[in-house]
């Protein structure tokens, strides 16, 4: 009873704090109050509180249940939320040493509240109470395999969202430039060819010589690309370890390293998509927008692998359906 109450309190505290963090980011975005240092510090402290609350929640459930808390969809979603918070903490302290702002919480905070909000929703009420592990999950490989997979999902999702943000900024800028050029064509011919040529040359100068605003936008896209590459690389390593450990576990449990059931197939597809991303990202001709397109596609693939396949409830991972684990 005490553990259950403590878990309930920690869940609501972490959810409430991360909601406040998102509100602060909306204030920064729409009210243009970036210069208010107090708001930035508050959001960072909020993510730190969220991290420790979710950590306490997982430890409490571990002690209460007697097994590592990754045995059902509810626990894996909470662990995924913890993974988002962990990524934020690592980036926060790394950038703090360099005395630079950490804007990654604009990605990690909404991701954490989305996963935790779904986990604590009424759809998964039956899973909130810890149950005895299914026979297939009573293995020392549970912690190794599932934790690596979920951490891999968290890192890959964060990296993919950064790539989506890069695409939004890039294409938004391109649309504005095209719109300005179209307006120029519509207006300048009515005033004669000489005025058209003068205005056309001004547009070309404004396009090719970066203004201060365009310079900062360029710096932002470079930073997004760099962070996306680093986080996806880390997630790819976790995913690879998770797949390999899962293969060893599958051989012990089912007598075969690979069985091509839906979960394994989509895990392989996910691994392949991000392997393609890493290959294109290391090629100078394809880095930036081209590699970001691959990562953005991977964002959808991950959700199909992690959550979509579980809705089917078929295959050797049928215990990973809507009622049990989601590894």
Automatic annotation (TrEMBL):
<feature type="domain" description="Cytochrome c assembly protein">
    <location>
        <begin position="70"/>
        <end position="317"/>
    </location>
</feature>
<keyword id="KW-1133">Transmembrane helix</keyword>
<dbReference type="InterPro" id="IPR002541">
    <property type="entry name" value="Cyt_c_assembly"/>
</dbReference>
<keyword id="KW-0934">Plastid</keyword>
<dbReference type="GO" id="GO:0020037">
    <property type="term" value="F:heme binding"/>
</dbReference>
<feature type="transmembrane region" description="Helical">
    <location>
        <begin position="144"/>
        <end position="171"/>
    </location>
</feature>
<feature type="transmembrane region" description="Helical">
    <location>
        <begin position="76"/>
        <end position="93"/>
    </location>
</feature>
<keyword id="KW-0150">Chloroplast</keyword>
<dbReference type="InterPro" id="IPR017562">
    <property type="entry name" value="Cyt_c_biogenesis_CcsA"/>
</dbReference>
<feature type="transmembrane region" description="Helical">
    <location>
        <begin position="12"/>
        <end position="33"/>
    </location>
</feature>
<feature type="transmembrane region" description="Helical">
    <location>
        <begin position="45"/>
        <end position="64"/>
    </location>
</feature>
<feature type="transmembrane region" description="Helical">
    <location>
        <begin position="105"/>
        <end position="124"/>
    </location>
</feature>
<dbReference type="Pfam" id="PF01578">
    <property type="entry name" value="Cytochrom_C_asm"/>
</dbReference>
<keyword id="KW-0201">Cytochrome c-type biogenesis</keyword>
<dbReference type="GO" id="GO:0009535">
    <property type="term" value="C:chloroplast thylakoid membrane"/>
</dbReference>
<comment type="subunit">
    <text>May interact with Ccs1.</text>
</comment>
<feature type="transmembrane region" description="Helical">
    <location>
        <begin position="292"/>
        <end position="316"/>
    </location>
</feature>
<feature type="transmembrane region" description="Helical">
    <location>
        <begin position="227"/>
        <end position="250"/>
    </location>
</feature>
<dbReference type="InterPro" id="IPR045062">
    <property type="entry name" value="Cyt_c_biogenesis_CcsA/CcmC"/>
</dbReference>
<protein>
    <recommendedName>
        <fullName>Cytochrome c biogenesis protein CcsA</fullName>
    </recommendedName>
</protein>
<feature type="transmembrane region" description="Helical">
    <location>
        <begin position="265"/>
        <end position="280"/>
    </location>
</feature>
<dbReference type="GO" id="GO:0005886">
    <property type="term" value="C:plasma membrane"/>
</dbReference>
<keyword id="KW-0472">Membrane</keyword>
<keyword id="KW-0812">Transmembrane</keyword>
<keyword id="KW-0793">Thylakoid</keyword>
<dbReference type="GO" id="GO:0017004">
    <property type="term" value="P:cytochrome complex assembly"/>
</dbReference>
<comment type="similarity">
    <text>Belongs to the CcmF/CycK/Ccl1/NrfE/CcsA family.</text>
</comment>
<comment type="function">
    <text>Required during biogenesis of c-type cytochromes (cytochrome c6 and cytochrome f) at the step of heme attachment.</text>
</comment>
């Amino acid at each position: 009873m005490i553990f259950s109450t403590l878990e309930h309190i920690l869940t609501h505290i972490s959810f409430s704090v991360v909601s406040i963090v998102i509100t602060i980011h909306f204030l920064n975005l729409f009210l243009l109050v970036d210069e208010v240092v107090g708001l930035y510090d508050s959001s960072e402290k909020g993510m730190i509180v969220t991290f420790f609350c979710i950590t306490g929640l997982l430890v409490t459930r571990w002690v209460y249940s007697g097994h590592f808390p990754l045995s059902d969809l509810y626990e894996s979603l909470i662990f995924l939320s913890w993974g988002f918070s962990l990524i934020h903490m690592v980036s926060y302290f790394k950038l703090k040493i360099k005395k630079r702002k950490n804007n990654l919480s604009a990605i990690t905070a909404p991701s954490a509240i989305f996963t935790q909000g779904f986990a604590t929703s009424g759809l998964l009420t039956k899973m909130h109470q810890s149950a005895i592990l299914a026979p297939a999950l009573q293995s020392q490989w549970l912690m190794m395999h599932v934790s690596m997979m979920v951490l891999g999902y968290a890192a890959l999702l964060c990296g993919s969202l950064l790539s989506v943000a890069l695409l939004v900024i890039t294409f938004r800028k391109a649309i504005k430039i095209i719109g300005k050029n179209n307006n120029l064509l519509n207006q300048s011919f009515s005033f004669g060819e000489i005025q058209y040529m003068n205005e056309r040359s001004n547009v070309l100068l404004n396009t090719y010589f970066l203004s201060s605003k365009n310079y900062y936008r360029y710096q932002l896209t470079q930073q997004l690309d760099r962070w996306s590459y680093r986080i996806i690389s880390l997630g790819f390593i976790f995913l690879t370890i998770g797949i390999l450990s899962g293969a060893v576990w599958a051989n012990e449990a089912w007598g075969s390293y690979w069985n091509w059931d839906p979960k394994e197939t989509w895990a392989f597809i996910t691994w392949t998509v991000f392997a393609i991303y890493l290959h294109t990202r290391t090629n100078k001709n394809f880095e930036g927008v081209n590699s970001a397109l691959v990562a953005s596609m991977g964002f959808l693939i991950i959700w199909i692998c992690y959550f979509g396949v579980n809705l089917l409830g078929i295959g050797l991972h049928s215990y990973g359906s809507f009622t049990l684990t989601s590894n």
